[in-house]
Design brief:
By secondary structure, this protein is α/β, with parallel strands linked by helices. It contains 19 helices and 19 strands.
Length: 470
Amino acid sequence: MNDSVVEKLISIGCLKFGNFTLKSGQTSPIYCDLRLLISYPKLLTEVTDYLWTIFSKMEIKLDRICGVPYTALPIATHLSIQHSIPMVFRRKEAKEYGTKKMVEGKFEDNDKCLIVEDVVTTGSSVLETAENLRSVGLKVDTAIVLVDREQGALENLKQAGVKLISLITMSDIVEYASKTGCLPSEQLVALQNLNNGHMNGSSNDLQSLKDRAALTSNWSSKNLMSVLMSKQSNLCLSVDETDCQSVINLVDKIGPFVCAVKTHIDIIRDLDKFGTEKFLGELTSLSLKHDFLLIEDRKFSDIGNTFQMQLFGGPFRIASWAHLVTAHSLSGPGMLAALKSSKCDTGSAPGIIFVAEMSSSGNLVSDYYTRKTVELAKQHKDLVCGFVYRNFEAVKDDSFVRFMPGVALETSSDGDQNYVTVERAMADEKCDVIIVGRAILNSREQIKTAQEFKDRAWQIYSRRYADLNA
């Protein structure tokens, strides 16, 4: 059956071979354009029925079907009509009028919804759809797809609790081309090399950073990844100065080299004298001037109502200027539920960075606590940006941003703080953002030191992704 499907998709131009530049910027010897299927209703019906036959063997109970917009909508519609399963529709963007819904259609809480897609690469579009559906109370644990390019989607979706079922894979296409001799030798070799790279796991290190950024669901995560790419910087400056002018001077000096600045607003001693409004206004202006995000390292951990007041009220009104805030997961989901309701009342709230692990000696964070923190974050990807962590295995879900504290140019310790090198953070632990404080603050040449951190981190990071390595 697989050979027959591949042959027919090639014959109508859904599978093209050559040298193509993809949306991510990567080049590929194959291009999958399943939009053409709508012009061949007989074949559309045939391949969709083949896919359903594979899925039905799983004996999974369904209440709803949702096609990923837009190419998969005809496929989902056919399945909905053919098997009398109600369909829901996910918008790419919420309407700015009327109900402003992201998910249209009739459904009940806890209805089980099957996602339908035409092609997956990293699985980012399916992940985004799953998050939207889950946010309105639907349960999602399975997705079906016509073509899996085998570039990380299976594993990425598994991490998000979604089982991927495909009709054909890139391996099937390569096998067909090898058996039939339908491609010139150089094109076949390019296709085989592409597939071998994906199957041996190197695609995770060489996927597009744009694709990786697309996996994120939180608005602040997307902003951070955008700044990271545009400035080619993984550096976050931790500003632990205790007077307003020193903070402003340092941030203005180092701002051009960073993607983020981390503050401790409650350690600044002269806010009353300098003026809180004036200070926060200047800090916000610098974030716009130098294009970086502001992270308030408050480490919230209270019950939902108190957290809500701490974030949106009090003398600092943190939500009015911070793009991201740190928090512990100790209080459980109540804090995130309060944040979700706050977004409705006050607009966009800061993204949450959960402290999953700590860099201090003798800290009491256990593996169990870390695992539960990650599980909680996965249930609230629209609110949680990422994690402060130390070990990649604990937080390897690429839909979150990884922040490594305690990074230095050389391995060392300082009081109860344990430092790791840039190379350890970026290469071994696959960090996205290194947090550096005293190494820059105490340097006699602060700009030169910041530049060195930025360059060393980006050099390693750029080797991880194909579009940065071109």
